[in-house]
Amino acid sequence: MMTPEQIERTLDRVLLQVEKPGRYVGGEYNSVVKAWADTPFRVALAFPDIYDLGMSNLGLMLLYDIINRQPDMLAERVYSPWIDMEAVMRREGIPLYSLETRRPIRDFDLLAITLPYEQLYTNVLNLLDLAGIPLYSHERDASYPLVIAGGHACYNPEPMADFIDGFAIGEGEEIILEITRTLQQVQDRPRDEQLMALAQIKGFYVPRFYDVIYQPDGQVAAVHPNRPGVPATVTKRVVPILPAPFTRFLVPNIDTVHNRAPIEIMRGCTRGCRFCHAGMVARPVRERPVEEIIQAVDEIVRNTGFEEIGLLSLSSSDYSDVKRLVREIGDRYGSQGLSISLPSLRIESTSIDLMDALKDARRGGFTLAPEAASERMRRIINKYMPHQQVLDTTREIFSRGWRTIKLYFMIGHPEETLDDVQAIADLARAILAEGRRVHGKKATVNVGVSTFVPKPHTPFQWVSLDTLDQIEAKQKVLKRALGGHGLQLHWSDAHDTLLESFLSRGDRRLGAVIRRAWEQGARFDAWQDCFSFPVWQEAFAGAGLDMAFYTHRPRALGEVFPWDHLSIGVRKSYLAEDYRMSQQGQTRADCRGGCYACGILPRFSGLRAETPAAAWKCPPVVPKHQRGKKREDIIPLTPVQVFGEG
Asked: Given 10, 168, 226, 358, which is the most exposed site by the fewest CB atoms within 10 A?
């Protein structure tokens, strides 16, 4: 294994042979470099995609800051090398190394991998291999770094269970230090003892301590612990009160995909869209005070030089003080050239008012995400709005100066027909007509159409994915109907959708498929110029598994899912009830207007009873003895009272 000095000398010689050498040199403004010899515990934080994407990942930056604030710990970063750099590294014998000190990743105590989406799985195997770390968890003893993962793809970690020692389920701001402190205490013990100590942490899942039993037809029969003292159900971690926003962002060496500093203004969502994985797993809603956000903007401007701030949430116009927030930012920074983006707005006049207050937002167009174009489909997916409201909103947008509207839809929703797909084209043309009344031929409508993938822990986790023929038939309708001046159509490749589908809802047996695909060259599967669907088909055949079993098979309501032993705090029975409502075309209103008892407040064991009720934005919970009464006669319980009930 090369030393850091040898790695440095070799890089000096070869870096100009690759595209964008700035990806691999480190030294960014605000990066943290600690003395290796004086810091007893070392963490490598990995984002298994290229630097250009990973530098924009807020989760990794939060962990980087939290760990480096500890005097006895250090955190350094590593990203996936692009194909040209990987070839150079393998040719020259350069091991995967950290950007801060050029240390081989093999030398760290902990390798923590961020997994926001499933298409990164083969990149994880590639990272381990480049680091000289055995791929399989059972092949690694305590002389290797302990390998953990977290992120939204880890709410069903089973496809990666063979390769990862443990998964942090849920939010990472608190659990990361519990993991590192616990590992410090057991560093000298065998790997199994280390993992048993970590398994006692709420929200930490160790796959090797659980056995999966399969039925003869291939469905999961049960998942249960195989060691005493391991919980039967691992419940996600939640940070009850969001800490002050992170502000000391690293300034990248090169242009990145999202060249801005993000501030999360709110976490969670109460809208209940049935297709939305993030909306279910990120419950409950928590908001940051306006004063904290304004202070964070001040510090970012002072510490980084970023020219754009992204105010992030799943539904920004639902933030309680959003009008005041936008007004105060505008008053303070309107004359300084700072750009503010406010994504994820609802289709309503409030959203237009907000965007109007952001001064120069018209340059990039106005983005709306109806997701479905017919009222019937919007009821099924629980994102209902009257057709006329969509047209009225777009008319307002065009009348206030925007010339481009971007529309995002999904095809493949449950019970969708070709008429529902045609409605997407009809709605886009109707919106373009509204724009032309104001701007003539300068008005444009860009339509982005992705394909729905059923996700774990959502009301639609029981439905099947459209077949390849169905997806392509629906795309053909749109391609035929959305031609002409002023309309642009973008769609996702159907094979990409299949990949996401079987990785999202797969079980532990998919580990063999992922390994075979990687051996045949699969990596950067989220990139069109790298993804090869035939490689995955061959991998399924080699593993003796049927892809359609994971993609196109509808699930019975009583089926045991591979992720059922991992709880997001929302009851499976609630999700099933919501799924049945979708089949009847019934909707649920935003649950800020009344609690539907999904389970996140009264049942969630990770919340502290002393958490102030004001910190939560979920609605009051109705006691059982008061259910059925008129709303005005109900005496609501605060979250604190509910926690007290147990």
From this structure: 226
Residue 615 has pLDDT above 80, yes or no: no
In 316-421, beta strands by DSSP E: 339-341, 366-371, 404-411
Q: What percent of the chain has pLDDT over 70?
A: 91
Q: Token digits for 147?
A: 């390998």
Which ranges constitute the DSSP H helices of 23-116? 51-54, 58-68, 83-92
Q: Pairing relation of β-strands 286-287 and 266-267? A: antiparallel
Cβ–Cβ < 8 Å for 373, 424: yes
Which 8-state DSSP code applies to residue 243?
P
User: What is the structure's pLDDT at 604?
Assistant: 46
Residue 573, phi then psi, degrees to nearest 5: -65, -35
Q: What is the pLDDT of residues 290-299, one digit of tens each?
A: 999 999 999 9
H or E element that contains 59: helix 58-68
Average pLDDT of the segment spanning 106-111: 98
Q: What's the total number of domains in the chain?
A: 3
Predicted confidence (pLDDT) per residue in 382-392, tens digit: 999 999 999 99
Domain of residue 501, CATH code: 3.80.30.20
**Residue 249 domain-assigned (yes or no):** no
Q: What is the pLDDT of residue 602?
A: 57
Domain containing 417: what range? 261-551
Helix, strand, coil proportions of the chain in percent (round to 5)? 40, 15, 45
Q: Which of 246, 354, 247, 238 is nearest to 286 (CA)?
A: 238
User: Which among 220, 235, 250 is the end of a domain?
Assistant: 235
> Do residues 219 and 267 share a domain?
no
Output the pTM of the full model. 0.92
